Amino acid sequence: MFDDMYREVILDHYKNPRGHGTLDDPDAHADGQNPLCGDEVSIYVAFGEDGETIDEVKFSGRGCAISQAATSMLTEMVAGRTAVQVAALDKDELLEEIGIPLTPVRLKCAMLGLTTLKVALHKAKGTALPEGLAGFDDLDLS
Ligand code: FES
Question: Which of 22, 43, 118, 134 sits between 20 and 30 A of 94, alpha carbons compared?
Fold first, then answer.
């Protein structure tokens, strides 16, 4: 029954993604790709006046329900946190939010947005990259 509830939440995020779109002049930005399927997510971040706290996060791209829903959930989770806090955000926090067990392949889908966000923050602020890029070895770092 709980699984059903989580599935509904995931579908709702997929159909009505929060934070969907782009920012014209982002303070941080990265494009990520899941090498297993080629799906892509681009992340755009605007910092608040202190230059550290995330004021707004937007994302665009295409992918499966899990990747898009997880990225949508992520945009809600990280607003108001600092770049350093988000760089240290444990993937389990996002997985708890997703709430259903995921196969290793689906785990990559779920991590696409978070990994891309961490890369964006790394490029803009020099914060830590996720260990081994969470398997996204050919994530575009340019
Ligand atoms: Fe491509 Fe999930 S199948 S990100």
Answer: 22
